[in-house]
Amino acid sequence: MRFFERMPKNVVYLSRRNLLTLLSKLDRKAAGEDTKCAIVKNRNPGEFQQTMSSILVVAVSDEEMYATRPAGEMHPSDEQNIPKPETGVEYAGPVM
Fold first, then answer.
1. What pLDDT score does 1 carry?
2. Structure confidence at residue 88 (pLDDT)
3. Which residues on adjacent β-strands are paired with residue 58?
4. DSSP structure class, residue 51
5. Do residues 35 and 29 make contact, with C-beta atoms less than 8 angstroms apart?
6. Within a 13 Å sphere around the CA of 3, how many CA atoms are in the beta-carbon half?
7. Using CA atoms, how far apart are residues 75 and 17, in angstroms rounded to an integer?
8. Which end of the chain has the lower number of beta carbons within 10 A, N or C?
């Protein structure tokens, strides 16, 4: 079975610009600025059409996200470049 055959049916595409915008919003919020830390993605014509007509994508700080649960596993190549939250877990095997 191929990797993408097991994936959820809904897909949203985030560009590097989208991701950097969300990170910027998190930094601004941490600095005390008023931001909702969110972007709205609408289905647009082109190669990367998301499966829903629109979706609200909200960025949440690691401290908020992992306050009550451990962070999920990551591939070692990614984990070595990204700090693990205090409540995070170490990589324990293949992640699909």
1. 41
2. 56
3. 38
4. S
5. yes
6. 3
7. 23
8. N
DSSP labels, 19-49: HHHHHHHHHHHHTT-----EEEEE--SSS--
CA within 13 Å, CB half, 51: 4
Which pLDDT score, from 0 to 100, does residue 68 have? 84
Closest CA to 48 of 15, 91, 82, 7: 15
Closest CA to 88 of 74, 68, 71, 63: 71
Do 78 and 94 form a contact (C-beta atoms < 8 A)?
A: no
The whole-model pTM stands at 0.74
Q: What pLDDT, in 10s, does the model give residues 3-62? A: 556 677 888 999 999 999 999 999 999 999 999 999 999 998 889 989 999 999 999 998
Residue with tokens 């998301």: 50
Strands (E), the chain: 38-42, 54-58
CA-nearest of 84, 93, 81 to 65 is 84
Look up residue 86 and give its DSSP letter: T
